[in-house]
Design brief:
By secondary structure, the chain is an alpha/beta fold. Helices cover 19% and strands 21% of the residues. The chain is built from 9 helices and 18 strands. The longest helix has 13 residues, at 174-186.
């Protein structure tokens, strides 16, 4: 049985109808081009981290935190890039002597024709920033399946969750739809979690429908991101890499989010945008769900968990698009066993030995992607931040941050009482 519990319904002008919402904010201010493989399944990566881009290989440890979940001594640059490092790589515009100056990411392919190894080598020797951007045009077409083990120290159902995030679909991204079809046909999972940012523009609506069609016969839940409501805008990418500011406010959505959410809801998926709900998975057990709308555009609101949240033997799942610390900490204090999020693209541009350059929110860079533990006020939750599959149509690169879907195998370390 799938149901969603609507608490404190009131009119939301953005979603043009009645939906559960509260006037209270979440409060915690302390805190592959897969080459088709001759018809085979999608490439699988069995590690928790992308070793090419993630220096912190002990992501199950969380140290140096205060009681509210914030890293002690964390500065504003936790979610932004190191200026000196970007300059040395030629990734900052307007710095003399670097080949990437004044280059728009969407036009990076104009520097070199990809696939011509000699030109790539020359670019790498003479202009490392330009070479990185050229490679990023290739890497964004190399999606993988990541498999992660999530042990829970409570008697909870054993379940495998497929997380899909940040598709950003627009014409030309059909390779991602093909990849998802192969995932649906070859992988085993019990539940689908969609964590937002599905559109790369209004012209991506048909691709979004095609992408989710193979999964709609499975149980699922979803939250929305800013690029489900509003089209992306072209940005000065040098400023984007060095700042962590939210977008300018917009009040009139221009993306077809209502047909998408109606499609998902008609399939029985639970909308968790500032909502709570229950999901009974046949052959698995009960999941109690709690989510928020996108904190990046200040749409996150507070709702109390459903009564099932406190029931023994139920898996408590939190969901949000942008992993802002106020939301992650609030869900942790509520007792979530696992929180799933997206938004960061894993940094989208990473460096070997350094990791993600930015997170595009206030969460520290070490949490830009993958599985980790989050602590707040004496409680802890597993946090999985997906690097997602797509990119903005204005920034069509990924460097040391492969596009991904994730299979999260949640299992109890304590057996349920009989």
């Amino acid at each position: 049985m799938r149901s969603a519990t609507d608490l404190e319904p009131e009119v939301d002008r953005f979603r043009c109808g009645v939906r559960p919402i509260s006037s209270r904010r979440w409060t915690d201010f302390g805190a592959e081009y897969d080459r088709s493989r001759a018809g085979g399944g999608p490439i699988s990566v069995r590690s928790t981290t992308d070793l090419a881009a993630e220096p912190d290989r002990s992501r199950r440890r969380v140290g140096g935190r205060d009681a509210s979940g914030q890293v002690q001594g964390a500065s504003r640059l936790d979610g932004t890039a190191d200026l000196g490092l970007l300059g040395a790589l030629g990734l900052l515009p307007g710095r003399p002597g670097h080949g990437a100056a004044h280059v728009d990411l969407a036009d990076a392919a104009g520097l070199h024709h990809l696939g011509h190894g000699l030109r790539m080598q020359r670019a790498g020797r003479d202009h490392p920033g330009a070479a990185a951007l050229a490679w990023g045009r290739v890497e964004r077409r190399l999606p993988v399946v990541r498999r992660l083990e999530v042990p829970v120290a409570r008697p909870v159902p054993e379940v495998t969750i497929l997380q899909i995030s940040d598709l950003h679909l627009f014409p030309g991204q059909e390779f991602l739809v093909d990849f998802l079809r192969r995932v649906a046909a070859t992988e085993r999972f019990d539940v689908v979690a969609s964590t937002g940012d599905n559109f790369g523009g209004p012209d991506g609506a048909d691709l979004v429908r095609e992408a989710y069609a193979p999964f709609l016969d499975r149980p699922g839940f979803f939250v929305l991101g800013s690029n489900d409501y509003y089209s992306p805008v072209r940005k000065n990418w040098g400023r984007y890499l060095t700042r962590s500011k939210g977008p300018r406010p917009r009040v009139v959505p221009d993306l077809p989010w209502t047909p998408m959410t109606r499609m998902m809801a008609d399939a029985g998926w639970v909308d968790l945008s500032n909502r709570t709900g229950d999901l009974e998975v046949p052959g698995v057990g009960a999941l109690s769900l709690l989510g928020t709308d996108d904190a990046h555009i200040h749409r996150d609101r507070y709702v109390d968990p459903a009564p099932s949240w406190e029931r023994e033997g139920v898996l408590r799942l939190g969901a949000t698009h942008s992993p802002y610390t106020r939301v992650v900490s609030a869900l942790t204090r509520r007792g979530a066993d696992l929180i799933v999020a997206g938004h960061t693209h894993g940094g989208q541009i990473g460096l070997p030995g350094f990791g993600a350059l930015i997170t595009n929110c206030d969460i520290p860079r070490r949490y830009a992607k993958g599985l980790s533990q989050w602590h707040s006020q004496g409680r802890s939750s597993w946090l999985h931040v997906s690097a997602g599959l797509g990119t903005s149509r204005y920034a069509r690169v990924r460097v040391a941050t492969r596009p991904e879907v994730s299979l999260l195998h949640v299992f109890p370390t304590r057996s349920p009482r009989l």
